[in-house]
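Retro notes - structure team

What went well: the batch runner handled both jobs without manual restarts.
What didn't: labels got mixed up in the shared folder, which is why I'm recording both outputs here explicitly, each with its sequence directly above its tokens.

Job 1
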Amino acid sequence: MARRHRAAPAPATRFDRRLAEILTHATEVFCKKGYEGASMRDLSRASGMSLAGLYYYFESKERLLFLIQKHTFSTIVERLKARLEGVSDPEHKIRIFILNHLEYFLANPANMKVLSHEAEALKNGFASEVAAIKREYYRICVGLLDQLKSDRGLHFPTRIAVLSLFGMMNWIYTWHNPRVDADAEQLAREMSDIFLRGVMAGGRARR
């Protein structure tokens, strides 16, 4: 069974704590109104910060969206790397990857909706920095699938497998109902079974 990750350390400074609060409020606003529909005044009201104060620290709502996306992807990648340490079996690694992804997004559904719906909203340097983190996350998944192929002697298109896996995981917020659906651990186990059985059976059939 995959190891549970340690809880993320609390922000160290008063400013960091306040920033985390503002990003949480901004995520809720973007989730409800959409990036285009949200205004700095909406964000000011939700965060309890004056409009002037908000503009002092964040020159635009684009910067707030950037910080939300950067924090989310960085947190997921950091937690994943910590959980993969010391694990050698490639199938177990993929199961950890899926569990790590589902745990975070089921605990933070507003973040998932904002990331999915506002993926193209960032421009220029903001977009490039977030894209670099997303590429790292994608490459980790590619590496895990390639390791599985090598270890088990399988033949399947890695890119299609990776993108199919993200397709399974990323839209969970549109249907998951905690009152009737399983928790992240059980869902990750079942989703891992479906995905791994598919790629391993298909990979052997190609041979």
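Job 2
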Amino acid sequence: MYLRAVGESNPLFRQQALIPLTALAAYALRGILREINLPPGAIHSAQETSVSRPITSDEAIVFRARLTQNSVWKGWRFVSVDYSGVDEDEKEVIRGRSTVVIPEGQVGEGDR
């Protein structure tokens, strides 16, 4: 689905069942953002990602994440989350950091 959505036509991804780095990072970010329960007006402002080896579509990757920044500056809340993904042998295959900026007036009660 990801390859179709971004218009990727390189046959290498399909022939070798490789997962594009951006697809894996987007999947990790989706889970993180669901847990944070972002309000309207949130902006995904930065992303850092590194991968240690190619990952195929038949692998199970388990992600872990932790909040590393939660601060307010000039009416904006900056939230950064570090994440990593390990394969079935518990070897890290992906690591990254996502930062989201939220207008402070948009943070709902109990979300702090």
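One thing worth noting from job 2: The chain has a mean pLDDT of 86.
We'll revisit the folder naming next retro.
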